[in-house]
Amino acid sequence: MAATPSIPGRYDCNMSPPAPRLRVLEHVPDSLFHTPARDLERVLGGPTLLRIAGEQTILPLFVSTLLHGNETSGWTALCRLLGRGDLPRRPLLVFLGNVAAAAAGVRHLPGEPDFNRIWKNADPPYAAFAASVLNHVVSEPLAAAIDLHNNTGRNPHYSVLTDLSDANRSLAYLFSDKAVYVEEPDSVLTRATQQHCPSIAVELGPINDPHSDDLAEDLLRRVTAAPSLTPSHDGLTLYTSLARVHINPDVAFSFAGTGPPAPLVLTGGMEAVNFHAVPRHTEFAYTQRPFQETIQVLDPGHRNVTDQFFYQEGPHVRFARDVVPAMYTTDPDVVRQDCLCYLMAPLSPRKATPTGHPPPVQ
To answer: Chain centroid to CA 341: how far?
Structure first.
């Protein structure tokens, strides 16, 4: 049963034993920011909220990272920003998510949910945990919320929006000139915080890429130093997510040129065209089976729309329409745990109508 709002700004949680348990540190030792992500569980004991004072009494920034344990660029950037003991100009509320997965160097541990899918309709122990985090987050006004992630494939760096308000688009443009509007999954942290303050997720680039760490550090330095988080967003290019592509669980797959033949062979080089327009009829995969038995495409309403995006010509599976792929990954674990890729289309400015959520704050 999901955690649902009970009174404005508060979240009710079930009475099931919370697992994991949230820790809150009001006084954060400088030594923490010299701790590698893999050692945070040993030092902290579990997911933790850090309250970090700022030089000025302006609204704090909520920063979340390590929701996926192997995506460490956000933590690296925080260590660079705070490791010398200097106070940021803007106070911070920092959530360190799946530190147990970080210790193992994986997205999430076997048998536990994805920490960026627990903020709505989670199983009771995780609904209780999510509610405890959100209760702290909404207990005070915030300037903005930024959720830091690494990409699961080769992509340009970009922001993810779950709401098209001017405030969210302005916040996104501080990071990149590209942003993706998504309606699902609807259980991500950004969607949970957007009712309280401007909120975005940022995709920093590949895991273990020093440039991803640099992008995260640059964003945090600019946002914590900025007196206002309301720049123009006129140069922002918006895409909308149309669907997600999944490999059916019982189907073995491989990527062309990288391993032995499999019942489903995915076209080589597709990762290289993330965020590029791919014309209809382009080959996507190769299979001797009916392609609907191997892949499934779900729209934001979780409807099966496979036939709207693909058709089969002999063993060749081809796009049935022009699309823009994103987050295409060749990591088999991510494919199984999440999806193979998203399919997008450009979002015209006249369709990107603000939805009237909280205005930007100083």
So the answer is: 13
